[in-house]
Amino acid sequence: MRFIFLFTFLVTTVFTFAQRNCGTALYAARFENEIVTQQINSSYNRDTIEDEILTIPVVVHVLYNNNAQNISDAQIRSQIDVLNEDFRRMNVDAANTPEAFKVHAADSRIMFCLAQINPEGYAAKGIIRKYTSTRVFDLNDGMKYNAAGGDNAWNSKKYLNIWICNMGSNAIGYASQPGGQADRDGIVIQYNAFGRIGTLMPNFNKGRTATHEIAHWLGLRHIWGDNECGNDGINDTPQQSGYNNNCPSFPTLSSCSADANGDMFMNFMDYTNDACMNMFTHGQKTKMRGQFAINGPRNSFMNSFACDSSMSTAAPLPDDTISAVKTIAPSFKIYPNPATNELNVEGLNGFDLKGQALKIYSATGVLQFSKSNLISTEKINISHLTSGVYFVSIISGKDRKIIKLIKQ
Q1: pLDDT tier, 397 (very low <50, low <70, confident <90, very high otherwise)
Q2: What CA–CA distance (Å, rounded) separates 76 from 210?
Q3: Which among 68, 172, 268, 367 is least surrounded, fewest beta carbons within 10 Å?
Q4: Banded model confidence at residue 376, pLDDT cuts 50, 70, 90
């Protein structure tokens, strides 16, 4: 099917937008017949634990034709901060959610990190910079392929690929759908709508374009269902006649408003300015987290360890490093796993824990627990840890052995 672009620009144009426009619905219509069934390795898959913090490794492909498009590391890191605030409802402007909608506002317990390990197992910083002779990219996915002047995706079963480039449609971002073709999987963002520092468009200077597009990548639709009084499939997002632009006043009523509260225009899935977006709902949280469940299209991320720099090996990682009950070398074991309050640690195959050091890191590499001079069999109190994924590391001289731990 021929794809018709909405606008054509001169390749030297610097794009500015008076209002938000997301290309995801149009992009999805183009590839609606190409959704594929995800193949999940049953040896390693596991389900999510209720309210477990899910951490997604991100690789940012910066494609630049001039210096302005080669955005800084600081600008990229500011976007990761925004994502972690928005998806955890830790954003300062959460206080701006109207009282009528605060009961529906949710912490999705999804977080993001710049990937610390590349697909070959080498240490990385999650940012790729590449000069391109292509001055403008359209919604034809050229930015996702080396051959078209873009950059090939990292393994999309373990990494969220984000391409930053100069876009030539009237959209400032778009996302692939869960279950789509692996080499196209990820999101694309206009370079001056990414992050909250640097040279940014006035209405899109708080990083909410990426929040919006990643939510699409996690299965959410626009809040108005892309139809007049449409349905986004989420029970706690009120029906509205269409999208909202700029910064409406509460309440904003439309012909299909369910009650006097009107539109939930501050939802991240509407089209309002960055400064006016501040919430996901509990229903949206359930929908997004459902992508990671067993047989879900994002379940493979439950085995992704790329947020932990200590897992880099300077060589391809063996498959058993992604198992919750195996290590790079079978030198010790932990049980139960998943664990609730107490963790047992024992040496295996002649490895003696006595005198060694044990550390527990969060999925983002933050040290949570440390103990030196272990005895032969240890019982570790982990009741203070919140639910989520951790890494238990035994340090023996220059050698480090690691097991993934699930805390319930």
Answers
A1: low
A2: 11
A3: 367
A4: confident
What was the pLDDT predicted at 316? 29
CA angle 18, 62, 74 (to 5 degrees): 80
Q: Which domains does the chain have, with CATH numbers?
A: 24-300 (3.40.390.10), 327-407 (2.60.40.3080)
Give 403's Cβ-side CA count (13 Å radius): 24
Q: What does the pLDDT look like over 355-366, one tens digit per residue?
A: 888 888 876 567
Report yes or no: 276 and 245 within 8 Å, Cβ to Cβ.
Answer: no
Q: Whole-angstrom Cα distance, residue 408 to residue 340?
A: 5
**In one letter, which amino acid is 190?**
Q
Is 213 one of the catalytic residues?
yes
- Whether the pTM exceeds 0.85: the reply is no
Take residue 77 and report the two structure tokens written for it. 């890191």
- Other CB atoms within 10 Å distance of the CB of residue 41: 12
pLDDT surpasses 90 at 94: yes
What sign does the dihedral 274-280-285-291 (CA atoms) show? negative
Which token pair is 67? 């210096």
Strand ranges in 166-233 using DSSP code E only, listed in sequence order: 173-175, 187-190
pLDDT digits (tens, 9 = 90+) for 244-289: 999 999 999 988 999 999 999 999 999 999 999 999 999 999 999 9
Q: At what angle do helices 73-87 and 208-217 cross, to 10 degrees?
A: 60
Confidence of residue 91 (pLDDT cuts 50, 70, 90): very high
Write the DSSP assignment of 65-89 as a string of letters. SSGGGS--HHHHHHHHHHHHHHHTT
* Residue of 32, 34, 85, 213 marked active site: 213
Work out the burial of residue 212: count CB atoms within 10 Å of its CB; fewer than 13 is exposed, 13-18 middle, 19 or more buried: buried
